């Protein structure tokens, strides 16, 4: 970890600190394991500051692209990355809001020690990747997202045909 990629939550000010740069996806060890190729580009801009309520807020914007392997065709394809996350850093689990009070616009993270921003970017990109990578234009398989499994006839429908006409 280099010192210029470390965020010290206890040193944040209302003015904020900005971290900007680029990563080659293959240089991020955990992310590289998910990729078809180490090539690509990830640009990040992280702004860490105290908000008006004195909460430690980290805005994380990551844009770029990585190369994934399509799970249907096994071809490599370019996958766009566009992440805009807002994290609120808290010092302990006790400071986390109750589940029902969490916001969809913010994620709360326990950060009681310095935060490795390289790891933060890597984790955000990994979480944004599709569970089943598909090349654009390839239809999902049966039972997968976007397509319903074909309806099967009821096993009792065949029995109904064996029954004679209903008599009164």
Shape: globular
Q: Tell me the helix content.
A: 10-25%
Oligomer category: single chain
- The end-to-end span amounts to 84 Å
Keywords:
168 residues, two-stranded antiparallel ribbon, 5-stranded mixed beta sheet, alpha+beta, 35% strand, 14% helix
Q: How would you explain this protein's 3D organization?
A:
The chain has a five-stranded mixed beta sheet with strand order 2-3-4-5-6, covered by helices on one side. A two-stranded antiparallel sheet has the order 1-7. It has one domain. It has three helices and seven strands; from the N terminus they run ββαβββββαα. The protein has helices at residues 29-32, 117-128, 155-162; strands at residues 6-7, 17-23, 37-50, 56-69, 76-90, 107-110, 115-116. The model has no long low-confidence stretch (mean pLDDT 85). With 168 residues, the protein is an alpha+beta fold.
Write a compact overview of the structure shown.
The chain has 168 residues and is of the alpha+beta class. Helix content is 14%, strand content 35%.
List the helices and strands and how they pair.
Layout: E1 6-7, E2 17-23, H1 29-32, E3 37-50, E4 56-69, E5 76-90, E6 107-110, E7 115-116, H2 117-128, H3 155-162
Parallel strand pairs: 5-6
Antiparallel strand pairs: 1-7, 2-3, 3-4, 4-5
């Amino acid at each position: 970890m280099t010192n210029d990629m470390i965020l010290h939550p206890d040193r944040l000010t209302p003015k904020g600190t900005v971290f900007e740069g680029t990563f080659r996806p293959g240089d991020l060890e955990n992310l590289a394991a998910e990729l078809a190729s180490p090539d690509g580009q990830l640009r990040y801009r992280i702004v860490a500051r105290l908000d008006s309520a004195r909460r430690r807020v980290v805005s994380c914007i990551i844009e770029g692209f990585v190369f994934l392997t399509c799970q249907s065709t096994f071809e490599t394809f370019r996958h766009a990355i566009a992440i805009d996350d807002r994290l609120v850093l808290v010092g302990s689990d006790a400071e986390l809001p109750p589940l029902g009070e969490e916001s969809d616009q913010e994620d709360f993270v326990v950060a009681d020690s310095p935060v490795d921003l390289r790891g933060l970017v890597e984790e955000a990109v990994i979480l944004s990747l599709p569970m089943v990578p598909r090349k654009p234009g390839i239809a999902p398989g049966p039972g997968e997202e976007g397509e319903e499994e074909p309806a099967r006839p009821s096993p009792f429908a065949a029995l109904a045909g064996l029954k004679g006409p209903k008599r009164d």
